[in-house]
Amino acid sequence: MDISEVNISLFRLVNDLGKEHPFLNPLFSFIAEYMVFLLALSVLFIWFTRDTDNRIMILCASIAFICAFTIGKVAGAFHSNYQPFVELGEVNKLIHKEKDNSFPSDHTILFFSYCISFWLFKRGWSILWVLLAVLVGVSRIWVGVHYPFDVLAGVLISLAVSTFIYLTFPKLKVIQTTIKIYEKCENMLLYRFKRKENKSKNF
User: Fold this and answer.
1) By three-state DSSP, how is residue 73 classified?
2) Where is the Phosphatidic acid phosphatase type 2/haloperoxidase domain (predicted)?
3) From residue 15, how far is each of 68, 147, 150 by CA, in Å?
4) Please, which residues have CB within 8 angstroms of residue 163's CB and are 6 or more apart in sequence?
5) Rounded distance, CA 136 to CA 120, Å?
6) CA distance 130 to 110
């Protein structure tokens, strides 16, 4: 059995679960398509805790995502395959997706870049973020829009990049300086806003 056959077999193994357990399809469809909004809201919430360490974590995670996404696009230029619902028959396709190169999985890169970074910086309960990223990766196979190897490639790229960023970037002076400049500007804006608010109350 060659690699492509293994890829298809693993895809069938996961995707056919949707046919065997259709009551789970709405859940996995939601995870595959809308969990990205939860991630975005979480990133904003963590950023606006106004904790410097949290902001360094978010900044590094964002850099990791941009780098991993770029590497993913380069990898996709060297190897490409359409989504399973395009290439295979009887796929349990549960969400709308245009025909395109599905290697590697962009959703997987996004979630693993951030979730692995959260775990590296915080450890402890942050393992739940990694479990969420795994769930998103599985859901993309479940709904029929990615092969397991698309997801695996996204995991490996994100894991390597996120680990590298974690080990190197927080120590760079430019990261500390960027955060300090941002916080200085933020404090100035908040101060001006409070002054205007106090003036309006006095009148």
Assistant:
1) helix
2) 57-166
3) 26, 9, 14
4) 116, 120
5) 19
6) 12
Residue 82 corresponds to which tokens in the numbers above? Answer: 């359409």
In angstroms, how far apart are the furthest CA atoms of the chain? 80
Report yes or no: 110 and 62 within 8 Å, Cβ to Cβ: no
Residue with tokens 């859940």: 27
Q: Which residues of 53-88 are buried (b: 16+ CB within 10 A; e: fewer)?
A: ebbbbbbbbbbbbebbbebbeebbeeeebebbbbee
Q: Which two structure tokens, joined as six digits, stand for 160?
A: 């390597």
Domain spans, the chain: 3-170, 172-203
Q: How far apart are CA 121 and CA 38, in angstroms?
A: 20
Helix, strand, or coil here: 38? helix
pTM for this predicted structure: 0.89
Q: Are 74 and 109 in contact (CB under 8 A)?
A: no
Q: Which of 143, 62, 67 is nearest to 102 (CA)?
A: 143
Q: Are 184 and 50 in contact (CB under 8 A)?
A: no
If you average pLDDT over every residue of the chain, what do you get? Answer: 91
pLDDT tens per residue across span 45-62: 999 888 889 999 999 999
pLDDT tens digits, residue range 114-142? 999 999 998 877 899 999 999 999 999 99
Spatial CA neighbour of 82 closest among 18, 7, 27, 139 = 7
- Please count the CA atoms within 13 angstroms of the CA of 21 that sit on its side-chain side: 10
